[in-house]
Specification:
Belongs to the bacterial ring-hydroxylating dioxygenase ferredoxin component family. This protein is an all-beta fold. It has no helices and 11 strands.
Length: about 100
């Protein structure tokens, strides 16, 4: 699969507002988010601190809080916002098509 390929992650309705779900594709794992304003985002799935999956975390507005040590990331940018996380998350472009959430990998 060439870089920049769009893949279907889930149905838009699969994610509640202020929620996150896990999406695995090949050997990669992603977190797919829906923020408080209803926007969709995607990032690498594991916290950069201790590799805990973010799908078990808490979405607050446009921030995801890791379930293990409560580190926080900005969902749209992936920026590390609260210790112990200090390495940003990789984010991926997202688009909606026919009620589906697609991410570009």
């Amino acid at each position: 699969m060439s870089p920049g390929t769009w893949i279907e992650a889930c149905a838009a309705e699969d994610i509640e507002v202020e929620d996150v779900i896990r999406f695995d594709h090949g050997d990669q794992s992603f977190a797919i988010y829906r923020t408080a304003d209803g926007s969709y985002y995607a990032s690498e799935g594991f916290c950069t601190h201790q590799k805990v999956h973010l799908s078990d975390g808490l979405v607050m507005g446009s921030v995801i809080e890791c379930p293990k040590h409560n580190g926080r990331f900005d969902i749209p940018t992936g920026a590390a916002k609260r210790p112990p996380v200090c390495i940003n998350l990789q984010t991926y472009p997202v688009k909606l098509e026919a009620g589906k959430v697609l991410i570009q990998i």
